[in-house]
Known about the structure:
Blueprint lengths: L1 H34 L17 H20 L7 H20 L14 H32 L17 H32 L21 H14 L5 H19 L4 H16 L8 H18 L3 H24 L2
Helix pairs in contact: 1-4, 1-10, 2-3, 2-5, 3-5, 4-9, 4-10, 5-8, 5-9, 5-10, 6-7, 6-8, 7-8, 8-9, 9-10
Amino acid sequence: MRDEFRELALLVLAGAIVLAIMTPWGILAERQRRRQRLPLYPPPQVWRKPWGISDILLVTALLYVIPATLVELKIDPLVAPVAALPLQLLLLGVLRAVLLPGVPLWAGDRWRWWPSGVALAFRAWLILTPMTLGLNALIHWLYMELGASPQEHPLSQVDASQYWNACWVVLQACLAAPFVEELLFRGMLLPWLLGSRDRRGLVGRTSEPRLPVRWRPWIVWGLVLLLAASSSRYEPLVFAATLIATYLLLQRILRRHRRSRNACFASAALFAMVHVGVWPTPIPLLLLGLGWGWLALRTRSIVVPVVAHGTFNAVSAVFMILRGVFDR
């Protein structure tokens, strides 16, 4: 029990440190937003993205093969995701320039909304972080009371008290992971589920079948079940079945904004379930996936979710560093 209170105290301290760092930026962005008389949310626009399911598979392979290859080349698994990021950005840029010449993926006047984006990300972090961490602590406490053993994240085994280890943990958690995950789940998968696609795609521009929008979430739910079945525990399957039952129930109860709700819920479920190897982490991560999905839908961009994701992960990174220092 004493160790549990110590862990909780360190987590609260980590949150306070990140809050102290983020608050000046949030206040500055809010003042700038009001000075420019910008609304908190950008004006609504059609979310047209020039890709289909084959493009999502191509980019997914690109983003995950590069760090895996670096690990095979004997690069430290802690360093590989960070070292892979420049290569990923370079190849994504080449892919876009070659296959999507002249197709704008970012409206030129959207940059002036940065004060609103930073202010919105700060507010989202203030709301989602304590809710998610509190839910995670409650679930872990219940597991311990029931005599079960939660699975630990591989990064938790790293001695973050060492300077370079701490640097790599921060870069991986706050930069590499948010970019890759938000690009895939909120930047590519979510618009595809929503059905927002231009006539041209990255690959298969003329031959790729156009899957009806109403069937697209079920491909994601199939992946959710597949990931749950890959676990050695039975709880992920129960969790996946509960999510699908909830999805079907919402289909019958709620009629408004059905397409947006389906897309957000399905993408959040898959985002949570890809972390099934660290059970029961997917349960609180579902809440984050829903929140970041709503931000992406509301802003028609992944910039705010990336910032919110990075600042959320910063709490875990600082917690690991503090625990490593106090364990010396």
